[in-house]
């Protein structure tokens, strides 16, 4: 969703801001803008649409300065218009960018109107700009005005502010939304995401909840929620520039699909380095936290939720623990019955998803403090709020549709299931060795599945003109059917539904006709015969079948039944391998339909609002 970048330097910061905003584009946005302080004035350029359009306008205006802020906006309060785009300016003096939502903006707006402020936008953000301006009028510094303002705000914010009366300072504040400071040589930066500044510096400070900070060219001062100056640790970011570049690929989604053997191998390597299924993999307190777990509660959204649904089969079968999986936005509003012996597992690529974060807070408020986060972004909000962490090593995921994050989440969750099983005495040494072996061979099997791309691309041509599709699977492959349907709908805009194959005759069979392609994930497992019967039910109604099955299953193509053979059955990890062809099917169908694959309409990469 929204992105922030800011810089103070002895060189022109406009190219830095534009480059940063381009790197934030993947998060999803509908307008962009920058503001700079130059020659005692605040100058601003905003545009709806792409950053490139805003960049062209900034070039045309000859914008250049040593101090500036930039923003990509994903509309929440107020439509997609130039006047709602950030930065917002108060009285021609100060400019501000904001991520998050100010809940008490209406009350503050009334107050500011009474003080004589006029509003140009429908945003909650403009309120903050005027509030800071109002405090400055009392004769305090920009930092003090920001510190006074944030105490009057309810809600979530990451803020960056510049003021023409103070051309050597950039101030910033954080509550509930990620924000970090980048430390350069004689220049400093602020950003909502390290990718925005990684070409300038890798040395970063992650601001804590309630922090404010003041940046000059020469230094950075950070203050906690009570305005006391504090030292925050300096981290060196591991985000690689290569993961942020497209390279020879046409889309980030395509690149990320093809990166999966490497991403899985890196995640598995982390497990092997720790000596296998050792509790220490999850953090230093893991022995104590995992010792007497009585059940598992998984919380996540979207694709990450589907990873959780797959994990339930593993956790029940391998660890012998009851496992519930909930969509975070539902869980947080249910009257859940807390259990202090329950392990609460949140799964998230970004680590920022607001609903998952709130669900975790709610779970903790019910007295459940055995918490584990499976996350792809270290130092993001979810791992920081959890006792234990397992970091998936997928690398930066830029395409809005999650691919390599999903398969690495599955690897992490499988590892959790085996570790819990081992701690409970249900997995002996020989089984551990078998499971490790299966993980070692996984990148190779995933590569085989990727080699099916030309065959899947041919199927995609048949899908492209269709309006609807059904995806079926059973057991651990049922969540893969759900994931296949989600991938197809979000990037190709074809309406698609995933169903457990056994549910077909309880409703969805009514939809099946010659126009409804039905994808079936039918590996050679214990449920294959049952899936075959379900396939007959579809064929008898004229439905065209597209079946992914193992090389060693007895399944064969016939009239109206197309078959692609995935690699030899890989046993318990088969859902990970079968995630690949459904990703490829969605990708090639979207290509054939000419959609914006990496930035599907209306969607954002990190969903930081409710
Ligand atoms: C779908 C997709 C989304 C995310 C969901 C949760 O391709 O990417 O459904 O999985 O928004 O996001 P994270 O995993 O960042 O919490």
From TrEMBL:
Keyword set, alphabetical order: Aminotransferase, Cytoplasm, Glutamine amidotransferase, Repeat, Transferase
Active site: 2 (nucleophile), 605 (for fru-6p isomerization activity)
Function, as annotated: Catalyzes the first step in hexosamine metabolism, converting fructose-6P into glucosamine-6P using glutamine as a nitrogen source.
Complex formation: Homodimer.
Reactions catalysed: D-fructose 6-phosphate + L-glutamine = D-glucosamine 6-phosphate + L-glutamate
Any one GO molecular function term: glutamine-fructose-6-phosphate transaminase (isomerizing) activity
Subcellular localization(s) per the UniProt record: Cytoplasm
Identification of the protein by name: Glutamine--fructose-6-phosphate aminotransferase [isomerizing]
Residues annotated as domain SIS: 286-426, 459-600
InterPro entries listed in its UniProt record: GATase_2_dom (IPR017932), GFAT (IPR005855), GFAT_N (IPR047084), GlmS/AgaS_SIS (IPR035466), GlmS/FrlB_SIS (IPR035490), Ntn_hydrolases_N (IPR029055), SIS_dom (IPR001347), SIS_dom_sf (IPR046348)
Pfam families registered for this protein in UniProt: GATase_6, SIS
PROSITE patterns per record: GATASE_TYPE_2 (PS51278), SIS (PS51464)
Sequence ranges assigned to domain Glutamine amidotransferase type-2 in this UniProt record: 2-218
EC number: 2.6.1.16
